[in-house]
Design brief:
mainly alpha; cell membrane; membrane; YccS family putative transporter
């Protein structure tokens, strides 16, 4: 039994995403360190440690059965890579050819799926680790070809065994962490959304919407990660009560996301009309409290505690009371605005119900469609087709594979040309620094150099201060654990940690001080080669492809609109087709936000489209918000009105216009002006909505009118992007 003062910190540690990962690494590194000390054979320490690191880098989320299969594949790949390096190490020409071909092939596997990419990258890293280990031993001894591969693969197998057992014992824990992360990001999104209701004249709405679009990308990434985790565990395990509970929580998060991203009226008009009333303040407070409730739900999931959404429920009552007061005043000039506020009230009330349902997700109806779309390859034929689709200079994966293979071959040539001590660190630096685009490469290059300098300085100081081997062994293990604890979010600190670990590993078997200057020199040289390669070898400037990504966003929005209209015609059904259309629209919006983030890191000449792109992102995300409101209010079949052909025709025309603008933008053509048509549609829809008595049909007409007017601004932004693209 542990005291309460100790239990609470341990429970909080358990809720950290990196804690379990770091603990597995600690067990593996500490076990190897203890074994080498026990055998009095520290010469085995470096290859065993490197094998553990490579295996940990190859780890992906899965069930224990899937992780075991992945481990076996990984060990085979590691063994082949290590033996290949051993056999060709003394033949530079053959080695260079093999290095180029293998690095190209392994990078191309990224086109198949993330799991394949992770294992392939780890295999490439282990091959370089083999080179480092061989160089440290002065080459390959003819009678010991097996030695380095066996040690490297043994270290990898040791960590892999720990990983498989851990996964069998705690298979649901990563899923719980992932869903908690989803609700935490949703909480941030809702609180950002609440700022739009602040009753201020002249507020910078565009800046607020830009922040929302960027946060939406984080929400989408969290949802996608949870979906993949759930899908892997559902394979062959459907029916488990605990797993079905997580699946229902995921669908609740999707519903909350759709309602949170909804917009029912231009916020500036609402602020102008109700500036002297408290309705917008109530709406702002309600969204803020619902954001806090999402954050509380995240904590409740992590700590297995009850979830209380009382403050947000009270805020909803206050909002409804304020809205009823406005309705009671009966002012005609507010009629349309109050209808929009009533739709907002219905939306937020349903969102509150979803939050309440998250406390007992098992109450969600079992008859709903709970299927998930499988994006993983379905067999060898699918793998081949995906690879073939990327065998083109237009493919970013192909360009990166070619660029990385040339980078490594050039680095290998340089190290033979200048014969530096421990020169294979050049190749390792290039692998970690060389990224698919300039922005990411620039960021990792800077962080890699900074981290290496920090690690070398800290290593020099700590080796001097603690010359005894037991203390250095503890520091070695601690530094290795720190690398995995920080590499996802603090790469500079992670680089410093792994540099420190390497220094102390080498100091266990020789002179760690002798590695300081070679490591610094090789890092600078490898980073310079990688940076130059990204600049001159098929550079993938994100700004040049911005119009194509923007077109993809519009295409996905058009498909989402058609899926929504089909639901209004046939009745609400959260089937896979609808959820896939919705997810694709949000994925495209998130991808555009990520692309723009990369454009902002590119050199000035290639960054000239960034301002136009950011304006387009604001307009496209606003459009997605109007679409989300339509999707959130789907109801009974026939809501579009069988007798209202004008509304149906206008809706179809809006969807076709959106798709047409997307096609023209993708081709870099002049965007046709649809202002007159769209404005006419908006006027007709607003006139129909003013006379409509059915709330659901009126909301459909109002939202289509908002979408039509938004398309005018969106078409103008698309036209500017297309003009910029045609000048390239």
């Amino acid at each position: 039994m542990l005291p309460t003062s100790l239990i609470q910190p341990l429970r909080r540690l358990w809720t950290l995403e990196s804690f379990a990962y770091s603990l597995r690494v600690f067990i593996a590194l500490a076990g190897v360190m203890a074994l080498c000390w026990y055998l009095d054979d520290m010469g085995k320490l470096i290859p065993l440690f490197l094998g553990i690191i490579a295996s940990a880098l190859a780890e992906t989320d899965d069930t224990w059965q899937g992780r075991l299969q992945a481990l076996l594949v990984t060990l085979v790949c590691f063994a082949v890579a290590a033996l290949s390096v051993e056999l060709t190490f003394a033949h530079p020409v053959i080695f260079a050819v093999g290095l180029g071909v293998s690095s190209f092939g392994m990078t191309m596997l990224g086109a198949v799926g993330q799991r394949y990419a992770t294992i392939a990258t780890a295999t490439l890293i282990l091959a370089i680790y083999t080179m480092i280990s061989l160089e440290q031993h002065g080459g390959v001894a003819l009678g010991e070809l097996w030695r380095e591969p066996l040690l490297l693969v043994s270290g990898a197998a040791w960590y892999g065994a720990i990983s498989v057992v851990w996964c069998a014992l705690f298979s649901r824990h990563p899923l719980k962490l992932s869903l908690a992360h989803v609700f935490r990001e949703l909480g941030v999104y809702l609180r950002l959304k609440s700022a739009l209701f602040e009753p201020l004249r002249g507020m910078d709405i565009e800046q607020q919407r830009l922040a929302l679009a960027q946060q939406n990308g984080r929400v989408v990434a969290a949802l996608n990660q949870s979906k993949e985790m759930i899908f892997r565990r559902l394979e062959g395990q459907r029916g488990g009560r605990k797993l079905n509970r997580y699946l229902r929580l995921y669908f609740i998060a999707q519903d909350i996301h759709e309602r949170a991203s909804s917009s029912h009226y231009p916020y500036g008009a609402l602020a102008e009309a109700f500036f002297h009333h408290d309705i917008l303040f109530r709406a702002q407070r309600l969204l803020d409290q619902q954001g806090r409730a999402c954050k509380a739900l995240s904590r409740a999931l992590l700590l297995d505690r009850p979830f209380d959404h009382g403050p947000s429920a009270q805020a909803l009552e206050d909002f409804n009371a304020s809205l009823n007061n406005l309705h009671a005043q009966g002012r005609d000039e507010w009629r349309d605005l109050l209808r929009s506020l009533s739709a907002l009230a219905d939306n937020l009330a349903t969102l509150e119900d979803k939050l309440a349902g998250a406390d007992n997700p098992d109450a969600r109806a079992d008859h709903e469609d709970s299927s998930l779309f499988d994006r993983s390859p379905r067999g060898p034929r699918d793998v081949i087709e995906r690879l073939q689709a990327h065998v083109s200079l237009a493919s970013p994966v192909f360009r990166h594979a070619l660029r990385l293979s040339v980078t490594l071959v050039v680095g290998y040539g340089v190290l033979h040309w200048i014969h530096p001590t421990q020169g294979y660190w050049i190749l390792l630096t290039s692998v970690f620094v060389c990224r698919p685009n300039f922005g990411a490469t620039r960021r990792f290059l800077r962080q890699r150099i900074q981290g290496t300098v920090m690690g070398l300085v800290a290593g020099w100081a700590l080796i001097t201060l603690f010359p005894t081997e037991p203390v250095q062994a503890l520091i070695t293990v601690a530094a290795g654990v720190a690398f995995f604890a920080t590499r996802a979010h603090h790469y500079t600190l992670a680089t410093a940690s792994i540099t420190l670990m390497v220094l102390f590993c080498f100091n266990q078997v020789g002179d760690g001080f002798g590695l300081i200057w070679p490591r610094l020199f090789d890092t600078l040289l490898g980073a310079a080669i990688a940076g130059l390669a990204v600049l001159v070898i098929l550079p993938d400037w994100q700004g040049r492809g911005l119009h194509r990504q923007a077109a993809t966003t519009l295409e996905a929005s058009a498909a989402y609109l058609r899926a929504i209209l089909d639901q209004y015609a046939r009745g609400k059904r959260d089937d896979l087709a609808y959820r896939l259309a919705r997810r694709n629209a949000h994925n495209a919006d998130a991808a555009l936000s990520t692309t723009l983030g990369n454009v902002l890191l590119e050199p000035g000449h290639f960054r000239k489209d960034a301002d136009v792109g950011l304006r387009f992102l604001v307009h496209s995300h606003t459009l997605l918000s109007y679409l989300s409101a339509l999707g959130a209010h789907r109801g009974a079949a026939g809501a579009a009105g069988d007798d209202n052909t004008a509304v149906t025709a206008a809706a179809d025309d809006v969807a076709e216009t959106l798709a047409r603008v997307a096609r023209q933008l993708a081709a870099g053509e002049t965007i046709e002006s649809h202002q007159d048509t769209l404005t006419r549609h908006a006027g007709l829809l607003e006139a129909s909505a003013a006379e409509e008595t059915c709330d659901e049909r009126r909301l459909l007409q109002n939202q289509l009118a908002l979408i039509s007017r938004q398309l005018v601004a969106l078409s103008e932004a698309a036209g500017r992007l297309s003009i910029q693209a045609s000048r390239e």
